[in-house]
Amino acid sequence: VRSRYIGNANIFKEKEKEKLFKNYSRQALTSRLDLQDQDVSKLSESEYMQFADIHNWMRGDILQKADKMTMANSLELRVPFLDTTVSDVATGLIDAWKYKNGTTKFILRDAFAQDMPAKTNKRPKLGFPTPWHIWLKKDSQKVQDIILKNKLIGEICNVEYIQELFTKSNLNDKFIARRIFTLLMVALWYNTFIHDEK
């Protein structure tokens, strides 16, 4: 489960990192999954995932993003499933009620089955995908220039590998587009906060 959580956060696979960075050495990242010094050895897999979500991903990532996006647009975000009473009940459920015959959130779906369309009730979880590949098609040359002219990226990355990412076929690949935008964010961060290249 730990490796799955770390893997979900990875943008570049290990072999790609070896090509991307000039001096890359693999380090074990699983120890960085901070679980607040709790003894998690007796937790089931789903309890461990729930614990990791609550103590890391939710408060350190997704809730912060949602809060910033809604505040930037003068909206108030509500998260009723994070009400302390609801959360306490959810963390106390047995695994069989959380996942059954390939269905996630089984007891929740069952409880609301009468009140929502069957199509909605059976729909798999939807994320919040960002259309990097669509955005990239519009400004690929500008993005490439920002990345390749960046001082930090030039020092630590293999420019030839980055240029390969910008081939026409790659620009249609949403996973490669995500990698390109990650490099863009590093370049813009460096230009803004470390070294103003204007």
What is the percent of helical residues? Answer: 55-70%
Q: List the total number of helices.
A: 12
* Main pleated sheet: 2 strands, antiparallel
Number of strands: 2
Walk across the major sheet and give the strand order: 1-2
Q: Give me the Rg, rounded.
A: 21 Å
Overview in brief:
The protein has 198 residues and is an all-alpha fold. The chain contains twelve helices and two strands, in the order H-H-H-H-H-E-E-H-H-H-H-H-H-H.
Please tell me about this protein's structure:
- With 198 residues, this protein is mainly α.
- The protein has three domains: 2-92, no CATH class; 93-128, no CATH class; 132-194, no CATH class.
- Helices cover 62% and strands 2% of the residues.
- The protein is built from twelve helices and two strands; from the N terminus they run αααααββααααααα.
- The protein has helices at residues 2-9, 14-20, 45-72, 84-92, 95-98, 106-111, 118-122, 132-148, 151-156, 159-165, 168-171, 174-194, and strands spanning 99-100, 103-104.
- It has a two-stranded antiparallel sheet.
- Helix 8 crosses helix 12 (174-194).
- The longest helix has 28 residues, at 45-72.
- The N and C termini lie far apart (45 Å).
